[in-house]
Write a structure and sequence with these properties.
Largest sheet: 8 strands, antiparallel
Number of domains: 1
Helix content: under 10%
Order of helices and strands: HEEEEEEEHEEEEEEEEEEEEHEEE
Distance between the termini: 44 Å
CATH architecture: Distorted Sandwich
Number of helices: 3
Number of strands: 22
Shape: globular
């Protein structure tokens, strides 16, 4: 759909418009009574979210590249329909293809409380079907208000069950990693990718002082990012998710990636809600699975 058609069919006065950036990518730009946000139609990728009067909640790299077919550094990438490397084919893209292919706008509406609702559907093509031969649909539903609600909805439209791995790979804006503690995962078991996926149990709040890449398994816990520098707490409340991933690449890896910028990793942390490794979901024929997360902020 063209930019003019999108604005004709889906723009909402005082809430939502669609813009095109130099690379040709189209973004939904939300500016309502509660917050601002931007969402790329490629990947249905939430790039920014900032409640009025607050610092950004979602981190987007200053060096993020907006290019067709390329993932965006920061925001809320969608890992679907697998998390991490493909189970059987290492040549397929890590974390699946959903974050780098076009999605279509299905619905937009202004809600009575001043929030803005948007729904997107992944557009299938021969390439995606070759990577994922299972009959299914996936939608992303986003509500931008005082809080940000994100819901990833997968339906098995075929006649056979399949395994689904997924995550909302959310990057959070923080003052400095040294000023931050993640609460809520105490006593949870995790698989440590930095240590060849050895299994450990989290004892206290998570403090990051080096590379961290952990999958906390079999947990539905709400997480809280306590940020002493910004004097706020970001709450991450989830449903339909049994895994939480905590990631910060630290200096050496971030420098090699090239799109973090100098010390860029110090101003972000990923706390990802999903279903990964031993928590992948088996979706029976005709069944629908919903992964929902609400991100909200309070003062410390």
């Amino acid at each position: 759909m063209t930019l003019n058609a999108l604005n004709h069919n889906f723009a909402i006065a005082n809430h939502l418009q669609f813009i095109e950036v130099d690379s040709g990518l189209i973004f939904a730009e939300i500016n309502n009574a509660h917050a601002t946000a931007s969402i790329a139609l490629q990947g249905a990728h939430i790039a920014t979210f900032q409640p009025n009067g607050e610092q950004p909640v979602i981190w987007l790299s200053k060096l993020a590249k907006f290019a067709p077919g390329k993932s965006i550094r920061g925001g809320v990438p969608i890992c679907w329909p697998w998390f991490g490397p493909h189970k059987n084919d290492s040549k397929l893209p890590g974390h699946g293809y959903a974050r780098t292919v076009p999605w279509e706008v299905l619905e937009t509406k202004a809600l009575a409380d001043g929030s803005t609702f948007l729904s997107f559907g992944l557009i299938e093509n021969d390439t995606t079907r070759a990577q994922w031969p299972h009959e299914s649909t996936v939608q992303l539903e986003v509500t931008v208000g005082k809080a940000l609600r994100v819901e990833l909805v997968t339906t098995n439209t075929g006649k056979e069950s399949f395994e689904l791995g997924e995550a909302l790979h959310t990057y959070f804006h923080i003052s400095d990693v040294a000023q931050m503690t993640i609460r809520g995962l105490e006593q949870c078991e995790y698989l440590d990718k930095v240590k060849d996926f050895a299994r450990f149990t989290q004892q206290d709040g998570i403090v990051i002082e080096s590379e961290v890449d952990r999958v906390y398994v079999s947990t539905t816990a709400e997480c809280v990012i306590e940020d002493k520098g910004l004097k706020r707490a970001i709450h991450i409340a989830k449903q339909g998710s049994n895994s939480t991933v905590v990631w910060n690449p630290w200096t050496e890896k971030a420098d090699k990636m090239g799109d973090f910028g100098k010390d860029g990793h110090r101003g972000m942390v990923c706390v990802e809600s999903g279903n990964a490794r031993e928590n992948v979901v088996t979706l029976a024929a005709g069944e629908t699975h919903k992964l929902a997360v609400v991100y909200s902020v309070e003062k410390l």
